[in-house]
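note to self — DONT lose this again. spent like an hour looking for the file last time. sequence + predicted structure for the chain T wanted, 235 res
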Amino acid sequence: MSELNLAKSVLVVAAHPDDEILGCGGAMAQHIEKGDEVHVLILAEGMTSRDTSRDRSKREGDLSELAKTAHAANEIIGVSSLYLHDFPDNRMDSLDLLDVVKVVESFIEKYQPSVVYTHHRGDVNIDHTVIHDAVVAATRPQPNHCVKTVLFFETASSTEWRPPQSHPGFYPNYFVDISKSLDKKLGALDAYTTEMRDFPHARSVEALSHLAKWRGASIGVDAAEAFILGRKIVQ
């Protein structure tokens, strides 16, 4: 029986709006199709580092629109809940790691997930690195802890942009067949109108479709998402 069949509650912890769909939108849809609850925690606000020349009111308006877009995209997937935290965009290294860990722990306590998805530590984006470390700390295998599986996803336009000589590269050892949920994932990405780019940018709908096909071909299926297995506890 697959891990997807065993899960009841799933938590996705991502840095910015769209990272959750880029990294595991297909797996999220597969979980939901099998009757699992999927909860999404996005920790950084995801926009204000882009144009600091804009005045505060305009940037707040942009954030409000991005939040609406995030909810629309996650509705396409069918998640049970989406929470947008307000840690600073691309500045999470300025925070005490414990503050981030405590937020993640609070959601684990609330939803009791057996599976947690989050970022690969080798990404070029500093927020991804901080969140990876926070999730690893929050999911440490203490007695009777609910989390049994921790998976690290790739994030297009961040994971592949890190030269492997500067940090451990993304070499997946866990795959989810998303042949039946690829269209839903691409539809959710298409809803992120302000975040996606035109092909041949890595963060384009077309590029993500190609990536899913390549990951699928790597394991002999039509489309897949690839992960690094951080921990799996079998009971």
